[in-house]
Specification:
Elements lengths: L1 H19 L6 H13 L3 H11 L7 H12 L4 H4 L2 H13 L6 H36 L13 H17 L2 H14 L4 H12 L5 H15 L6 H12 L3 H14 L4 H15 L1 H13 L5 H19 L2 H11 L7 H12 L8 H17 L5 H18 L4 H13 L6 H7 L5 H10 L10 H5 L6 H7 L11
Helix pairs in contact: 2-3, 3-4, 4-7, 6-7, 8-9, 9-10, 10-11, 11-12, 12-13, 13-14, 14-15, 15-16, 16-17, 16-18, 18-19, 18-20, 19-20, 20-21, 22-23
Amino acid sequence: MKAIADQKYNRLYERGAGCVGLDFLAHPFWDKYLEFEERLEAQDRIFPILDRVVHIPMHQYARYFERFRHLAQTRPLHELLPAELLAQFRAEIEREGPVEGGEAGIERALRGRIDNFHLEIFSRTQTETTKRWTYESEVKRPYFHVTELDEGQLVNWRKYLDFEEVEGDYIRTSFLYERCLITCAYYDEFWLRYARWMLAQSGKEEEVRHIYQRASMLYAPISRPAVRLQYAYFEESLGGVELAKDIHGAILINLPGHIETIVSLANLSRRHGGLDAAIQVYKSQIDSVQCDIYAKAALVAEWARLLWKIKGSVEEARQVFQKNQHWYLDSRAFWISYLQFELDQPTSAETEPTQYKRIKQVHDDIRRKSHLPPLTMKDLSHYYMIYLLERGTKDAAKEYMQLDREVNGPFSVQSSMKAKIAEDGKEATTQRRLMMENGHPGVEVDETAIRKGENPYTKYYQQQGEQQLPSDTQV
């Protein structure tokens, strides 16, 4: 029974050596392993352990080498070196001529040469330790914690990984990645970097899958689905299309309406099921009650873009924008995409007047119909103004100057904005308020709305593109 227990413990220590044996601060583990073998008086196993340790760059490498060198003097020759290398040393000694003392003299010569060989190992280990000391000294938190790491720590891990990758040792590099991910488990960049590095190694697809699964199932927050999406692309690349779709679906269960994931799923469906499959993804998400209005607006724009870029049907894409614009008057993404769509259409001298009307109509809808904040409308108007100067006709300068007054001038000369914020849509109404409020449009007070508990300032904040303070929500 004791022998069985000893074998069990020995297997546990070997597992530990595989997990932490290469750590720069692994000396407590190796001390315990050696102590265990000493209690068993297993001298034949102590020396091989020391032989492993003296090759590892670690904090207390010199202490282990001194013990290793001292123990080597008492061990048989066949334990000190591999048989091939031992035979090579013996042959070299014999070629140098007769050795005084016969076999005993040869053994002395061999031990001397082996000791020099061991000293070379020590020198290499010392050099490797010195090269890593700079990075190790900057590791302030080698354990996991939920608090964020400072930028200096992240930079040090990046540089340390760069160093080991250049060194080219697969085992040491993969071990350092595992160490890094203990500390940086919540950082997507290191999971993605590890998976990409592993994928560059030949025949390591299963290891890459394991990395993605660990990140997706245990560590990477669902609120940041980048790792899971990358995992889906990896599985798709290996032919696992259904699994890739399931990964997308799992993300959307926890993050309904997540635009990047829906677009990715639509593109995945298009690659393997055609354009109609992609459109069906967009339609199903737009019809979903779990998808908010702003996400739906972005998805409509992506739907139109799909028809334009993939199917090549500009008119169908335009119809999607036109038929849905009244639903998404508050969406910045929708109107940016719609305006950019019309601006990007190729034209000629014959078709430019027609395209100008379309672009102007979109811009007018943005200025008059949309509920975008003034700063957003100003930015979009600047795109239109650039269009007028670069592609406009001889009358473009006149329209440009009028629009410049509306967009960049003081509020007192912004006719369309004054009409837009008026309750009755008339500029004269806002003009009267300007005169009453010494140049500021002020806020119209509706006594009936106040009695209902509504805040008279809410619309003002919305029109100005400002966020209302919590203390202003009640009157």
